[in-house]
Amino acid sequence: MLQRYETIPSTLPPQPRVAAILSCQNNIMALSWHMPISREPFRYAIAVREENHTHSLLVEYGSFTLNFLPFSFYDEIDKAGRTHGDEIDKFSVSTLTCDVVDPNGNRIIDQADYVYECSIIDTYQNGDHTIFAADVRAIHINENMNAHLALFLGHGEYATASAHSRVRQSSHVSTSKRSF
Ligand SMILES: Cc1cc2nc3c(=O)[nH]c(=O)nc-3n(C[C@H](O)[C@H](O)[C@H](O)COP(=O)(O)O)c2cc1C
To answer: Which domains does the chain have, with CATH numbers?
Structure first.
């Protein structure tokens, strides 16, 4: 039986979301509200609360990187999501390292499995988060990719996916439209 709620209950069962680290200039923050919105050109959207220091950096610099780290870095992700860049240099107190920055000065984190280099093309003020839509200018893929991404369950809990299967492609699936 399904229970109906008018708003998100505080006891909401986990809704796993992939946790990433967003870098804008030298600052980093944890981000789990994100999604692809176009394949060609490849575009990505993120939702950021206005009170976050990252929000003002995104408005000022118009670009960011999204760093997808392995599950083993959940503690670093969590720390980047509980402190503010206008109060502390989060990157320097983390165990993360960065050899290069992207052309806009945003960090490409060495430990990431993959990194999207993004330029903001549109902004949508919405509820208590602003949606930033961005062109993904480049994708960096780690040759030592771990592939066990960190899933954020809420309330300081993290997990990683444990099952994998492949659906057999059916012969009657339309080929005229691009599939996922
Ligand atoms: C795993 C995790 C995911 C988060 N996802 C988001 C998100 O998608 N959008 C957002 O605005 N804040 C999110 N937060 C909260 C911010 O990361 C947090 O407010 C952070 O301190 C902001 O840092 P800043 O002030 O340096 O920008 C998340 C926090 C955690 C721990």
So the answer is: 17-159 (2.30.110.10)
